Amino acid sequence: MIRRFLAYTVILCLCTSTLSFAGGSGAYPNGAEDFMSGAVPPPGTYFLAYSNYYSANQFKDNHGNNYNVGPLANVDINVWANVLRVLHVTDIKILGGNYAFHAFVPFVNMDFKFGEPYGSLGKSRFGLGDIIVDPFILAWHSKNFHWVTGLDIFLPTGRYAKDDEPVNLGNNVYTFEPLFAVSYLNGPWDVSFKFMYDISTDNNDYVISPYEAGAMGNPNVAGQTGTLSPGQEFHFDYALGFSPVPEWTLGVNGYVYQQTTDDQISGTRVSDMKGSVLAAGPAIKYNYKNMSFIFKNMWETSVENRPAGTSTWLKFVYAF
Question: How many CA atoms lie within 13 A of 87 on its CB side?
Answer without folding.
Answer: 21
